[in-house]
Design a protein that fits this description.
493 residues; alpha+beta; Heat Shock Protein 90; Ribosomal Protein S5, domain 2; seven-stranded mixed beta sheet; 16 helices; 17% strand
Length: 493
């Protein structure tokens, strides 16, 4: 233990942060608008809200957005405390259901998007109270002071219709609608697309709350339907056994989603989520049922097309926030080093199965007793490199051999047709992505004499047709696979 310092021996002086500079620092933390709205909703859920309403009104640069809930609300002192930056110590003990940590979410999330944050709140059987952070006022005065202001009397009426609850209102949303006119149709279209993305994000982040009926989220007075990343109600979804980590505090469970051929087109579109199929693969980290991080391999793997069906949920309590380095925005998480290898090993199993489903297009490749799957193409290693060859024992090849004795042209055409239609593109792609250096070149590592002889035969034929030596060699060099063997051309004549 380090020795304790006797602070009474030292001179001290105040070093109060400059209000305007600190506010601008808060604004630069880097929230996206969807993460900012989600952070406001966290406060509503922590306040035991059953209903949460997100509303907005397009007015160009005067557009406003509000988040209303029917939680337990606040009195004046509680509201002032909630509006105070850093109202919580992240080291303090807190409820296991608390979704906050730093006491900054309401303020930093809001300041990242707007210059005026108004909050009006009401406890049951009490009058409503309200206060506003106006960043222009803070810049003018240089003081950490709230103002007694509410942007529209309509919000007082809305809060009066609730037994209890809170409304957070954003005005002067400068990072999104600055200088836009209300009649700018392109700006409106862009704004509505962003709002649609916000709705999809909320459907994902709070899907467990919505699915269990703990919370109803209304977006422009329409219910938000939960988006579950794991397609748990699809029969073709493959779930892996849960694995407890960190003395059972952390629970990991993997899923391999169905191949698109096994589900409807509508479900395929829905399952791609806010970011698309490829980007949604990876770990999904939940804390207290709230999704913090979605579709991220945590630096353990690259995102590859053939792993896009792999999604793994990780559940952890808020008591591990510090160990997992949960940030203010609740958008970054880093597992402790001691867990990384365990998570990587578990994810490896899920990823391997995801590749198999992707490779076989979701087909059931299990064989009945006494039966064996017979592929037309087989992969094999030669000299440490991967190659693909036609299975000479395939029944089709046997049939073509017999046909060749009577109908050689037809047999060759049939063979070429089946080769063209059955090239194992997915397997080739997967191996190319995983081991690009291990992909073999034509005739690499085997006797190349047949290639040399065939080049010589074609060369002789071209010469007999009147081609010059230079012209004949140029023609051969531009024929695949002869282009891989330019050294044979030097001595071909």
């Amino acid at each position: 233990m380090p020795a304790k310092i006797d602070y009474t021996k030292f001179q001290t002086t105040p070093a109060i942060p400059e209000a305007s500079s600190m506010i601008e620092t808060f604004r630069a933390i880097g929230y996206s608008i969807e993460a900012a709205v989600a952070d406001i909703i966290d406060n509503s859920i922590s306040a035991a809200a059953k209903n949460i309403w997100i509303n907005f009104d397009w007015k160009g640069s005067d557009t406003w957005l509000s988040v209303k809930d029917d939680g337990h609300g606040m009195n004046n002192d509680e509201l002032v405390q909630a509006m105070r930056p850093g109202s919580k110590n992240p080291l303090d003990d807190r409820s296991s259901k608390d979704l906050g940590r730093f006491g900054l979410g309401l303020k930093t999330a809001s300041f990242s998007q707007c210059r005026k944050l108004s909050v009006i709140s009401k406890r049951e059987n009490c009058k409503s109270v309200y206060w506003t952070w106006d960043l222009d006022f803070v810049n003018q005065t240089g003081e950490w002071k709230l103002i007694k202001y509410v942007p529209d009397k309509k919000f007082e009426k809305e809060i009066s219709e609730l037994k209890s609850g809170t409304i957070a209102i954003w005005n002067d949303i400068d990072h999104l609608v600055k200088n836009f006119r209300s009649d700018d149709t392109k700006a409106l279209e862009k704004f509505l697309l962003i709002m649609e993305h916000v709705k999809k994000h909320l459907a994902m982040v709070f899907h467990r709350f919505i699915e269990t009926g703990k919370v109803k989220i209304h977006f422009q007075d329409r219910p938000v339907e939960a988006w579950n990343p794991f397609l748990i109600h699809e029969s073709a979804t493959q779930g892996f056994p849960e694995e407890p980590l960190q003395n059972g505090k952390v629970i990991v469970k993997g899923f391999v989603l169905p191949h698109k051929s096994k589900i409807s087109e509508e479900k395929v579109k829905d399952a791609e989520g806010p970011k698309g199929w490829n980007e949604q693969q990876g770990f999904y980290i939940y804390r207290n049922e709230r999704l913090l991080l979605s579709g991220d391999w945590l630096g353990m793997f690259r995102k590859e097309e053939h792993y896009k069906l792999a999604r793994i949920q990780i559940d952890l309590p808020n008591s591990l926030d510090a160990e997992w380095q949960i940030d203010i925005k609740k958008s970054i998480a880093r597992p402790p080093l001691v867990l990384r290898e365990q998570l990587k090993a578990y994810a490896g199993q899920v990823r391997n199965q995801a590749v198999e489903v992707y490779r076989h297009k979701g087909k059931n490749v299990k064989q009945l007793p006494g039966q064996k799957f017979i592929p037309l193409w087989v992969d094999h290693k030669r000299g440490g490199k991967w190659f693909y060859k036609i299975n000479r024992e395939h029944p089709l090849i046997e049939k073509i051999k017999k046909q060749a004795t009577t109908e050689p042209d037809k047999a060759i055409d049939t063979l070429i047709r089946f080769i063209e239609e059955t090239i194992p593109t997915k397997s080739i792609y997967i191996k190319e992505a995983e081991e690009p250096e291990a992909q073999g070149k034509p005739f690499e590592g085997i006797d190349q004499e047949p290639i040399r002889k065939l080049m010589k035969q074609i060369y002789d034929k071209l010469i007999s047709e009147g081609k010059t030596d230079e012209k004949a060699k140029a023609i051969i060099f531009n024929i695949e696979p002869f282009n891989h063997f330019p050294h044979f051309l030097e001595f071909i004549n």
